[in-house]
């Protein structure tokens, strides 16, 4: 694998020296397209991932996958599901027989090297995996290994776990951990020959409560920790009532999220603790994320993309996350399909169409897809960058007024080619003044201030405009009147979104009224004033 990737890198370097540089994306695509079918699960996992892999990351993943394929190719048949219980024996004769058997397996693997083909776990046929199997959509198809799985009566069903069968004990571990049997004394089981992958219908979850007042993660369940070790220091966990609890172990924990694995580092095991506490500050710093707390749920989002990684809920007055207990992320990636992600699988396969199209074609149930954002769709289909919605709430009229000028109109109407709109952000009421020139904005502003003072017995507290030259006079006038003046950022019309959309609403209504009356465009000024009059009397969201 390293020779293959180095050859492609040399070709890309030669092209770059000739002035035709090759991007990382093109280089990764070239590497993946040249791989044999044995690497198809790894290629599927890389292409379906939302992470931006570098060339070095992809090479590392493929080298690990090559190592795993070499290990599995020692047996001349597929072993996606194998059940060979190994018997432990202390006699030298049996040990010698085992050595002879291993030699025979090695010789057989050398003869069949390069001819091993993947075997489907569902139908048992050779040449494809379960993700490409035709029968995986047939609910009535039980699979050829169902009887073999039924024979494991003594095995405790768990979800996505690797199980190592030995004569004395069966040890199960979480996903992503290489299995190895252990006897009761803790020594490695040397005679265990085959590891099997079993999938059942239950999954282990843990509930974690985010705590902004905690400096460390604390748990009272020791079986959740991985890579744990004894705590040899003198520190203790200080509680709110002043008492201190002893720490026995320190370890790590990995939580399965939607896009990536999140790490709980330096988790303190305190047996007296009844709830798993997640330190908000430490978790956010270690995983480059931030928390959002709402009235009935909370969520964890990526700091760079703002993508939602994990969602919790309000339970008994406390926010909590029900997380899948994971282990250390795998060195070799593989493609997985869960029932909850069927929609997103087909959404990606079909080229990111709308929800309605996916439902009609694939006949999947859409539960959370309508409330989840596809980052690839946002990146590829958005015309502009996303802009945060304002959360400001106004409590009285004329607390903030947005001003903007429309024009010039292609046809003048009674000498008018412009109009200016004043929009009150509290009531959304709109006032229009027709202008012959942009410089007449100052006259319209004086008329509007007089109208507010006389008719509403009120004062304008703040004005918001863009950086147009027609509003420069406001810097002096607003200062004299005690009005706070705000300007939007350059090339950021979204900050004046209300008055910008009001322009469009007024113009569309004006053209519609002219079309209904059959009048020429030269009467647009009369229709525009009528449009504003009608819009102000229509229901609006405040």
TrEMBL record:
Keywords: Hydrolase, Protease. The keyword Hydrolase applies. One of its GO terms (biological process) is DNA integration. Residues 393-542 form the Integrase catalytic domain. Residues 87-114 are annotated as: Disordered. GO terms for molecular function: nucleic acid binding; peptidase activity. Transmembrane segments: none annotated. It comes from the Eukaryota. This is Integrase catalytic domain-containing protein. It comes from Hibiscus trionum.
